[in-house]
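Record type: monomer structure entry
Structure origin: computed from sequence
Chain ID: A
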Amino acid sequence: MPQPKIKLVVTGDDFGYCPRRNRGIVDCFLAGAISNVSLLVNSSSAKDAAELAIRHCIPIGLHANLSEGVPVCQKLRRDSTLVNDNGFFHGKMGFRKVLQKGLLSMAEVELELQAQVKLFCDLLGHLPSHMDGHQHVHVLPEVRDVFARVLSEYGIPFTRVPVEPSLQSCSWLPLPLHEFYTQVEKDAWDSSTVFRAHGIRWPDVYLGLTTMGENMSVSSIKRAIGKALAAWQPKSPLAVPQCDTVRGTQGPVTVELMVHPGYPSDPQQGGCGQGPDSFSQSAERQHELETLMDPQLLAFYKQEQIQLCAFKDL
């Protein structure tokens, strides 16, 4: 059987994090290496990112943030279950610990998500075409229900369901990272039923956990796409249940590739209120940028009839 044609959404996450991340993401988009971005509205360079998206007509969604920096909603910045004693979100793992202890108010989660959607609209002049969660918090228990309700309330049609077909075969991932990704996948599987009940859609295949940072190369992206297509069948256990309106029975397979390109952050500039983290300062950001812009990868897309597009094009 010939390889099916693919609609590939290459999403640059963390747009707005700092000026150097913004510049790298824009360079990638102008080179045809990414096709979609997700904006952190509580980041230090969110306004600049929004202006760049408008200037360059970059398809843009909301990277909802409940784990890093400061809430957008003013009244949640103190005496809130979402923040620690210093007024900052609890962090990637801290958020999960507070949630597991039953100490997180879902009413406050909803208020913050609504505030971030409203700020996105103020910055861009329109609703996000898609909305996912920074550090995958949107698929966590309880949070997923609130997240789906907010998407439905605002009519935001697309989200991300991070279940990657080749994850379990990647024995080379460090054990702590593999365990975290495995838990993300389990939460994502469980969230798919909730999202589907609210009429929310997502691409047929998700990629990105196994191709991040130093693990990204032209060959690793090719391999991930190949494995995904080999594994994906509409009725297979690897096909996360979703709305049938994403693709027709004869249509192309839709894929999202999550990426984090950029130029490494200046240690004194960026972040969401606490300065840029080590992830953003890492040389891996530029490594991703250079890999995504590699002429060999762009030629591969053309050769295999892989069409880069945005969520709004699905």
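Annotation 1: The mean pLDDT is 91.
Annotation 2: The chain has one domain: 6-313.
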